[in-house]
Amino acid sequence: MILPIMGVGAQNFDSDRMLEFFQHVDSADRAMGSISIWKSDEEVFFHSIGYARIEEQKKANEETIYRVGSLNKTFTTAIILLLEEKGLLKTSDALHKYFPEIANSKEITLDHLLLHRSGIYNLTNAEDYFSWMTEKKSREELLEMFYGFEPVFKPGSRTEYSNTNYVLLSFIAEDVTGKTYEQVLEEYITGPLGLDNTFITNDLSAVDNHAFSYSKLQKWNLEPETHPSIPLGAGALSSNVRDLNRFMHALFNGKVLQQESLEKMVTVTGSYGLGIAPIPFYDRISWGHTGGIDGFFAVFSHFPEDDMTLSVTFNGLATSGNDLLIGILSLYFGRDYEFPEFKEALFLDMEELNQYPGLY
């Protein structure tokens, strides 16, 4: 699906060149996914490449939905700050108020959770994680696991990414509202903003327009599905690029949070704000997040000074996602950029590999 559009305010953006770039990536079969770029609240570029579901020969299009991994954390942060605005919690609250069994809970605040400065071990780093990530886990099972985690560092002393922080924040949102995380998400974010394609699903195949994810060696191979009960508000979300742009544009235009809460969100401690991070691109700074789960990779980013919002979702990558983003931003902002040269990978069978024994 190709929808290059020139909109008001996208004066120097060469949408034909951007389209050519994605056709170049597609012809090399190095990525599958969708992109949307907004200038203000108007879409100036949309394109999809590859397949949403290879087995069904279903190509990606305007309707395709992807899992977006840790982009979910920005949504969860917005929920927590909205709950603070309503007086249901404070980000200065000690974790001990909610989960006293967590080690160092008296010293850990919700701000520490939001900033990845809690010192709580990241559950997805567990050695056996890949053996159970596809299984449904109850809240009780996850908490029992968390209660056994030894602290990684003293709360507030440094920044270290941990999905556990945002699973706990999801539970806290449930506790103070008396609703499930999915219900809170709908009530506070997706409902008011009309994000009809943003939700959590237990079964990707049950959603007709949901992509599956893949990894590639000689061909694209289907990846397993992490059960959403495990990452919850840390990374269970599904969405599409237009919903993601709608959310980010609303967030930075006062339609989600009060100005004081937004300013709090983009105040950096260490390398992070609350559920969001500054992303530099030469002399520009955007605010956004990246996300990866199974074979999915996603990013959204808002450039306040340019009033530009970008969302990209992939369900298969056989190249550097960061390099593709550099290409996208270079082309949008009119910087010199040469399309990457994709070289064919060399695959050897076992007979050939056995000619080169040893340690390297």
- Give the integer mean of the pLDDT values: 93
Radius of gyration: 21 Å
Give the amount of beta strand, in percent. Answer: 15-25%
**Count of runs of 4 or more consecutive helical residues:** 11
Name the shape in a single word.
globular
* Alpha-beta content class: alpha+beta
Q: Helix-strand pattern, N to C?
A: EHEEEEEHHHHHHEEEHHEEEEHH
Order of strands in the sheet with most strands = 1-3-2-13-12-11-10
Tell me what you see in this structure.
This protein is of the alpha+beta class. The protein has helices spanning 15-27, 72-85, 110-114, 129-132, 139-147, 163-177, 181-193, 241-251, 259-265, 321-332, 350-353, and strands at residues 2-4, 31-39, 42-49, 51-53, 58-59, 66-67, 214-216, 220-222, 238-239, 277-281, 284-293, 296-303, 308-317. The strands form 4 sheets. The protein has a 7-stranded antiparallel sheet, with helices on both faces. A hairpin with a 3-residue loop joins strand 7 and strand 8 (220-222). The radius of gyration is 21 Å and the shape is globular. Residues 1-10 have low confidence and may be disordered.
Ordered list of secondary-structure elements with their pairings:
Layout lengths: L1 E3 L10 H13 L3 E9 L2 E8 L1 E3 L4 E2 L6 E2 L4 H14 L24 H5 L14 H4 L6 H9 L15 H15 L3 H13 L20 E3 L3 E3 L15 E2 L1 H11 L7 H7 L11 E5 L2 E10 L2 E8 L4 E10 L3 H12 L17 H4 L7
Antiparallel strand pairs: 1-3, 2-3, 2-13, 4-5, 6-9, 7-8, 10-11, 11-12, 12-13
